[in-house]
Design brief:
By secondary structure, this protein is an alpha/beta fold. The protein has two domains: 316 residues, Adenylosuccinate Synthetase, subunit A, domain 1 (Adenylosuccinate Synthetase, Chain A, domain 1); 99 residues, Adenylosuccinate Synthetase, subunit A, domain 2. It has eleven helices and 20 strands. The strands form five sheets. It has a ten-stranded mixed beta sheet, with helices on both faces. Strands 14, 16, 17 and 18 form a four-stranded mixed beta sheet that branches. Bound molecules: guanosine-5'-diphosphate (GDP), 6-O-phosphoryl inosine monophosphate and magnesium ion. The site of guanosine-5'-diphosphate (GDP) has 21 residues, from helix 1 and strand 3. Guanosine-5'-diphosphate binds next to helix 1 and strand 3.
Length: 430
């Protein structure tokens, strides 16, 4: 039995989807525990590319796939995703379980996400516009609606009427938006239709996950976003609205910390970020453009170009601590193939001149101090044998391991399943 958490160590898009898919080969279940369809997890095998937003990436391997209570679910988008996969011969119906306690993303959440970003103007967060922030606000503010609430028809109808009245007041008097008000009757019918489709999947998922643990199964917990988008530990306020850290898996799936066997940190060999917020090692020059084009760095959810920069050891070292990472998977090394010189941020100079190796509270106005390493400057894309990796790449890898304080377990040299070197596959499933 093993419970393995897969977590992003930077600002998301590290390659979590690829690794979850890879490790699902030996998993009995995969659980999403936070976030919603703001995530975009890419999995490539054969001639196909899949981008999963809500469904756990394990679904592609026809494995029990669970949307935990910590997830916020947009039912319309979920149904769309299920239909798309079924058209590609993935029989989602046989494997999916949705927590009755997961919160719903309601129409006003998406509207308010958009209106709030418009109001903020230049100071916008650059959200994915999927209503994620407002949905979590309502969860914590105790005005949310849970998947299971749909099963109590009369109660749902009454609660919906109350909430819609409040949201319409907000729309008209706070946002002063020139938009039609929300209609409780229309939303009720819309959600009744969703319930008719999804009813068979709704259950007590914490019970299911704990039963799987008791039966000695191997379970993967698929994190979304990344450590520095965490609402407590990220670059606040430029963060998402959930706890993206490994710790979030316990509350978001309904298991105790004593059940976790290991935490695999997914690390991009450089750094990217989508949306606004500080990014000390960002490159606005030719090197940044080369990372962007070689890495095809466009958001898997919104299609926005991702900002690119050098590897930041302060970030990933902090991620190792915050998540209790036991080993890392180093992704997209092949993207660095064309670089003659590589840089790694090993410290920051603060605005008062002080130098720190520990991540400060604010990443605004810090200047990275770089260590330079010689690039391997040859093609490694698609390499599957450790012995074939150039010594300069191994030196880069070793330096990263030393700086972040966690061993490398997986090396990724391309987007496809097979373009991977797993150093010790048994370590995850002991
Ligand atoms: P996630 O959100 O963490 O699952 O990552 P995304 O799917 O948003 O972004 C990662 C992107 O990098 C996807 O397009 C993957 O197909 C791709 N990718 C993953 N690993 C590698 C790799 O080792 N090399 C290259 N070139 N691409 C990779
Ligand atoms: P995966 O799981 C990268 C970013 C948005 C924005 C901020 C808040 O694919 O790694 P939100 O819509 O969550 O309120 O937006 O968080 N963001 C992501 N960036 N990868 C993601 O997910 C992200 N999910 C949200 O760009 O800056
Ligand atoms: Mg992504």
């Amino acid at each position: 039995m093993a419970c393995v958490i897969i977590v992003g160590t930077q600002w998301g898009d590290e390659g979590k989807g690829k690794i979850v898919d890879l490790l699902t080969e030996r998993a009995d279940a995969v659980v999403r525990y936070q976030g919603g369809n703001n995530a975009g997890h890419t999995v490539m095998f054969g001639q196909d590319t899949f981008v999963l937003h809500l469904l756990p990436s394990g679904i592609l391997r026809k494995t029990i796939s669970i949307l935990g209570n910590g997830v916020v679910v947009d039912l319309a988008e979920l149904i769309k995703e299920i239909n798309e996969l079924e058209q590609m011969d993935i029989a989602v119906a046989n494997y999916l379980h949705i927590s009755d306690r997961a919160q719903l993303v309601m129409p006003w959440h998406k509207t308010f996400d958009r209106l709030r970003e418009e109001q903020k103007g230049r100071n916008k967060i650059g959200t994915t516009g999927r209503g994620i922030g407002p949905a979590y606000e309502d969860k914590v503010g105790r005005s949310g609606i849970r998947v299971g609430d749909l099963l109590e028809t009369e109660q749902f109808k009454n609660r919906l009427a109350e909430i819609v009245a409040e949201k319409n007041k907000l729309l008209a008097s706070y946002f002063k938006a020139d938009e039609p008000p929300f209609s409780a009757a229309d939303i009720f019918s819309e959600f009744e239709a969703y319930l008719n489709i999804l009813r068979p999947y709704i259950r007590d998922t914490p019970l299911l996950v704990n039963q799987l643990i008791e039966d000695d199964k191997n379970i993967l917990f698929e994190g979304a976003q990344g450590t520095f988008l965490d609402v407590d530990h990220g670059t606040y306020p430029f963060v998402t609205s959930s706890n993206t850290l490994a710790g979030g898996a316990c509350a978001g799936a309904g298991i105790g910390p004593t059940r976790i066997t290991c935490v695999l940190g997914i690390v991009k060999a450089y750094t990217t970020r989508v949306g606004s917020g500080p990014f000390p090692t960002e490159l606005l020059d030719n090197d940044g453009e080369l990372l962007q084009s070689e890495g095809h760095e466009f958001g898997a959810t919104t299609g926005r170009p991702r900002r690119c920069g050098w590897f930041d050891a302060l970030l990933v070292r902090q991620a190792v601590r915050l998540n209790g990472i036991t080993s890392i998977s180093l992704m997209k090394l092949d993207v660095l193939d064309k670089f003659k010189t590589l840089k790694i941020a090993v410290a920051y100079r603060l605005s008062n001149g002080e130098v720190t190796e520990d991540l400060p509270r604010s990443l605004e106005n810090v200047t990275p101090i770089y260590e330079e390493m010689s690039g391997w400057n040859c093609k490694t894309a698609g390499t599957t044998s450790y012995k074939q990796l150039p010594t300069k790449m191994l030196a880069y890898l070793e330096r990263i391991t030393e700086l972040v304080g966690a061993p490398v377990a997986i090396i990724s040299t391309g987007p496809k399943r097979e373009e991977t070197i797993v150093l010790n596959p048994d370590q995850f499933w002991f």
